[in-house]
Amino acid sequence: MSEINYKDVSKSKKNVEVIFSKEEINGKFKEVYDELKGDVQVKGFRKGKVPMNIIKKRFADKVSEDIRERLFQEEYTKIIQDKGWHILKMVNVDLGDVKEDEDFIIKMEVEIRPKSDNVKYKDLPIDTDKKPDEISEEEINKVLKNIQRDKAFISPLKEDRPIKKGDMVKVSLNVEKHDEPGEYVTLYEDLDLIIDDDTPYDKGIKDSTVGKKKDEVYEYVQKVDKSKTPEEERDEIKYKITIKDIKEMELPKIDDELAKQIEFENVDKLKEYINNLLSQEKETKFREEQKVEILKLLLEANPVDELPEEFLKEAVDEEAKKANLDKLSEDKKEKKLEEIKNDVVKSLKEMMVVLDIANKEKIEVTEQEVELFFNHFAQTQGVEPQKMKELYEQNGLINKIKSDMLINKVVDFVKGLHEKKDEKNAVAKDDKKIITEEKEDSESGDKKLSDTDGSGADQ
User: What is the CATH number of the domain that holds 68?
Assistant: First the structure.
């Protein structure tokens, strides 16, 4: 039987040494050679009658390699079962050569997922009463105005005049080069802009066109909001704008006729549909924000002070590769790499805590749940579920899907625990209030009775 020695390098890094005695190794060689003897065919000998010295001479290297792989796989599986490790990365493995009449040693350096037996998740300051905001009339009207603009009647100007609010304007938009003042590069040759206050996109540029006429060329300087674009080095960006065309927009009324154009019975039905759609969007956003908050609270309650170093480096390198950093300057590249590392560290820490909770509460993602996910997702995209699944498998995204599903299940579980606890506390509070009120009523009644009896006695 092999001897296994463990050494803790850190919480996440372990050294393992497996020692096989020469007697064990000789037994393995005999086992494999006996298997070969019954099957191997050599010219001049009948099957099963090939002399062992010839078998050893021909197949020694193959047998040694086969034994080495068998022993490694057997011991690797045994280590995981015995220790309950979740091995994230095999940092280093030294198998050496397997030879008859010699001890054989396997040396491994592995990174594992650190576990916590005392994960905290049952008493977090989660606001279970918080709900998504109701959809406002203003939000519904905003969507209606977009529909109104989409169905507008657009016509050339009836007379030569400057641009005013409500017009549709076609412009050529050029931006000054960062490193060559006075030199411009074209961003858009033909950019259509609706000059209104309802669409915030490019508001400064749109407002700058008001009062200009067709064929007019002018410069517009936009101040850079560093809070929104911290990566932008300039304090201002200069544009050269050419007014290429101006058209009038005649907006239809927001009424039943407009609703019928997009296949709704009337405007009330359209508003109802918009309300439901916005409610779904708001609910999805709310759930995502709540998930982020719960994960933040879980990390605060369960600080992860160590991450597997090599596994982390590999994960950061993988994300950096996706980000295509080679196109960035060295300064921006370094800054972006730091952002990627911070995001990866946060995600890994969250996953460590989520897995601790999942293990403790026996929460898992089943293959059936994965299939249901692809069936639903494929339906929304109009493709076959199997083809979509194959595409995800080809891009190595199945594990990412499973991880996201597990995070959602654990977050929902934690949220559900707190909702039940708050509901129980609320019931207990109401019961206590009722008991208190009944007691007060009883005491008040006794006092009145006492006063009445006392009054009669005096008389």
Answer: 3.30.70.1050
In a domain, 222, yes or no: yes
Q: What is the pLDDT of residues 103-153, one digit of tens each?
A: 999 999 999 998 888 999 999 999 988 899 999 999 999 999 999 999 999
Domain limits for position 34: 3-112
The Cα 8–Cα 92 span in angstroms is: 15
β-pairing verdict for 104-112 and 153-156: unpaired
For residues 74 and 157, membership in a common domain is answered with no
Report the distance separating Cα 173 and Cα 352, nearest Å.
Answer: 49
Q: Where are the alpha helices (DSSP H) in 262-366?
A: 267-301, 309-323, 330-361
Dist. CA 130–CA 26, nearest whole Å: 69
Is the separation of the CB atoms in 364 and 406 below 8 Å?
Answer: yes
Mean pLDDT, residues 33-56 taken together: 78
Q: What integer pLDDT is reported at residue 218 of this predicted model?
A: 96
Give the C-alpha separation, 225 to 231, whole Å.
10
At 55-82, the pLDDT tens digits run: 888 888 888 999 999 999 988 888 888 8
Residue 197: inside a domain, yes or no?
yes
